[in-house]
Design goal:
- The complex is a heterodimer of chains A (607) and B (74).
- In chain A, β1 and β2 form a beta hairpin.
- In chain A, the strands form 4 sheets. In chain A, strands 2-1-6-3-4-5 form a 6-stranded mixed β-sheet, sandwiched between helices.
- In chain A, α7 packs antiparallel against α22.
- Chain A is globular, with a radius of gyration of 22 Å.
- The longest helix of chain A has 22 residues.
- Chain A contains 26 helices and 17 strands.
- Chain A is of the alpha+beta class.
- Chain B is mostly beta strands and 74 residues long.
- Chain B is built from 1 helix and 5 strands; from the N terminus they run ββαβββ.
- Chain B has one domain: Beta-grasp domain (Ubiquitin-like (UB roll)), CATH 3.10.20.
- Classes of the chains: A alpha+beta (607), B mainly beta (74).
- Chains A and B meet through α9 and α18 of A and β3 and β5 of B.
Chain lengths: 607, 74
């Protein structure tokens, strides 16, 4: 089958059974790859009510037809599972070189199921697939594990590994790869840890069949040419995602002290140029990337190295914790990566705990003696370690802030910044109604990668609540995640603004199937509805209430910064949802109607 | 001598597809953006003669000003 490696690897860890099955052509036709494959297998194979950390849950790793190909950004793979953080759908995207190696080893997907009786490494070298004892690696941090494998096997082997966070089943444990790339959100690392899989080591030398080699060469070159000629290439490469720190600060979108404001008085010390000058050593890209956004940094103060920090980490572990020292943020980033926990959720959890301390809900008795004032760097480092080890206050925070705030009560639920249990990523949304809706309706929880609309809010009027805004979010939700289906990176489109039509001939040359963006967006819409149905299947009370944002964005206007005194009214929050559900073809409680399911051809899959 | 404003990527859509626009010196970048029809707050990065500047930078004769926005998102 052109454009596909042709095999799906299934590893039953309970029985140590390894099998391969052909990639079904109708699966490739209907769901293409990546998170499309992920939701298909999740719905079909994980039984209703499965414990996210039990043997019935599965971890589904999928590449797409442009993964590992001569296409800009073809280095992404999707990790789908039932999320321990939220109890719903999780799909985490990971860059680096893992997905290319998967394809060269002849694999479109890897499905991990069951639970191993002892720690193991899944070792894959072309057709050789083995489960190897990893007892000696259990307890080790991610950088140590990756370095150990690279030194033993060679640089051409790609490694994905969990750290102590995943082993200890932290609800937002991540999976690390390439010394700084992660499948970050939803707790995919905890699922891997629950299965006692410490690492996946992969290497391959096969090739991917291509429908029209000459057309593929031409289409690939056209894409690279567009990237190389893009006006913004130089600046995006120089600063990566940190380019937006100063701008977010200016417009009131930079999360500050647990999202109580959107501008930070110490923000200037965290801006991209400051970081570039103070700590960045070099640029670092993923497979096939013409615009490497990764910044590899060295902190002299802490004598440590890290890939990053990128925007999200600066926002959540810098300004959101009141920390204005870029070296401290870099060191906290390194700790999270090494221990294997998501920086976005960790930053939120610590921010929430700091606010509890500020309000007197927590005293030193609750914080293991830590002086949890906003801006306390050493306390932040200590708490990161405690979360990953599930010690003291860290044990509570490791459950995620939805559960933690429900346990603590005393009004702390109101400043637990999450949607559906997933902590909000790095954009304050007090007065940015399109972006607020993007977070409310994102299919994994409050994450920005499905749709992003801060600039759009500013262009058309940030407080405006109109059907056009809602339509924009729906279009983005159908379109942007298609990069996660195709197995590629969206940032060439996002940052360099290259014409998305250039992908159409490339995909056709690879797979032999012509798909317009209109066709691709329809696939995106089908996947979006399936993820919604998964939430519904797994949560009996699922509906409108699950889409509500933190009250912070409709009850508490910031007292400082660019959005001082600004807020989204609760009536507008509900109007946004009303319009969204109507345009999606869902009920007023946010559930896909029978008619919508039938119109999208999903009836068979939902029975 | 006027300065040159170069909008990047999707910002060009806001100025009728122009890649270069002459702007008067002596005004801030913020003011110049408003004159050409770009809301200053949507611009994420200002680079003048290859140095990053704020939107309050006062334009000098002969400056080459690149402005960049994040349209597609994070």
């Amino acid at each position: 089958m052109n454009g596909y490696a042709g095999r799906i690897l299934r590893v039953n860890l309970t029985t140590a059974t390894i099998t391969k099955e052909p990639t079904p052509p109708d699966l490739a036709r209907d769901f293409i790859g990546g998170r499309g494959f992920g939701i298909y297998f999740l719905l079909k194979e994980v039984p209703k009510g499965a414990d996210p950390l039990g043997p019935e849950n599965k971890l589904i790793i999928s590449s797409g037809p442009i993964s590992g190909m001569m296409i800009p950004g073809g280095g992404k793979c999707d990790w789908t599972t039932k999320a321990p953080l939220t109890g719903g759908y999780a799909s985490a995207s990971m860059g680096g070189h893992f997905t290319a190696e998967m394809r060269y080893a002849g694999l479109d997907s890897i499905i991990l199921e069951g639970i191993s009786p002892k720690p193991v490494t899944l070792f894959i070298d072309n057709d050789r697939v083995e489960l190897r004892d990893a007892s000696d690696l259990w307890g080790k941090t991610t950088f140590v594990v990756e370095k150990q494998f690279k030194e033993k096997l060679g640089e051409e082997y790609q490694i994905a590994t969990i750290g102590p966070g995943g082993e200890n089943l932290v609800s937002y444990a991540c999976i690390n790869h390439d010394y700084g790339r992660q499948a970050g959100r939803g707790g995919v690392g905890a699922v891997m840890g629950s299965k006692k899989v410490k690492a996946i080591v992969i290497h391959g030398t096969k090739s991917i069949p291509v429908a029209d080699m000459e057309a593929y060469r031409k289409a690939g070159m056209a894409l690279f040419k567009a990237c190389k000629e893009a006006e913004g290439l130089k600046d995006w490469t120089r600063y990566g995602t940190t380019i937006v720190v100063s701008w977010c600060d200016e417009v009131g979108a930079l999360p500050t002290r647990n999202f109580s404001a959107g501008s930070f008085e110490g923000g200037k010390n965290l801006y991209g140029p400051v970081m570039r000058e103070k700590i960045v050593i070099t640029d670092k890209g993923c497979f096939g990337c013409p615009s490497p956004c990764g910044k590899y940094s060295r902190s002299k103060k802490y004598n440590s190295y890290v890939e990053g920090p990128e925007y999200e980490t600066i926002g959540l572990i810098g300004s959101n914790l009141g920390i204005d020292d870029i070296e401290a943020v870099a060191q906290a980033n390194r700790l999270c990566d090494d221990l294997g926990i998501d920086t976005i959720s960790a930053g939120n959890a610590i921010g929430w705990a700091m606010e509890c301390y500020q309000k007197g809900i927590f005293t030193k008795k609750d914080t293991d003696g830590l002086d949890l004032k906003f801006g306390n760097v050493e306390a932040t480092f200590a708490l990161i370690e405690k979360i990953a080890r599930r010690e003291g206050l860290g044990a509570l925070l490791s459950e995620g802030i939805k559960r933690a705030s429900q346990k603590v009560g005393k009004g702390s639920e109101k400043f637990a910044i999450h949607v559906k249990g997933m902590e909000q990523s790095g954009y304050a949304t007090h007065n940015a109604t399109a972006m607020l809706l993007a977070y409310m309706t994102c299919d994994v929880g409050a994450h920005h990668n499905r749709s992003w609309a801060i600039t759009y809010d500013l262009q058309v009027g940030r407080e405006l609540v109109v059907p056009e805004k809602v339509a924009r979010i729906i279009w983005l939700q159908n379109f942007r995640p298609m990069f996660d289906v195709l197995g590629g990176c969206r940032l060439q489109w996002v940052e360099l603004n290259i014409d998305r039509e250039l992908y159409v001939p490339a995909l056709e040359a690879i797979t032999g199937i012509h798909r317009s963006w209109q066709d691709l967006e329809k696939v995106g819409e089908r996947i979006w509805n399936l993820t919604r149905l998964f939430w519904l299947r797994e949560n009996e009370d699922f509906g409108r209430q699950w889409d509500m944002p933190s009250p912070r964005f409709y009850e508490e206007a910031p007292k400082t910064g660019a959005t001082k005194g600004q807020i989204t009214k609760i009536e507008d929050v509900n109007r946004l949802l009303d319009m969204y559900y109507e345009q999606r073809g869902w009920t007023s409680d946010g559930l896909p109607t029978t008619e919508t399911i039938e119109n999208l051809g999903l009836k068979a899959l939902t029975h | 001598m006027p300065a040159i404003l170069r909008p990047s990527g999707a910002l060009r859509d806001l100025v009728g597809g122009q890649t270069e626009i002459e702007v008067e010196s002596g005004q801030t970048v913020r003011a110049a953006l408003a004159v050409v029809g770009i809301k200053p707050e949507v611009v994420a990065l200002v680079v003048v003669n290859e140095e990053q500047r704020s939107k309050d930078y006062v334009i000098q004769d002969g400056d080459i000003i690149r402005v960049l926005a994040v349209i597609g998102g994070g």
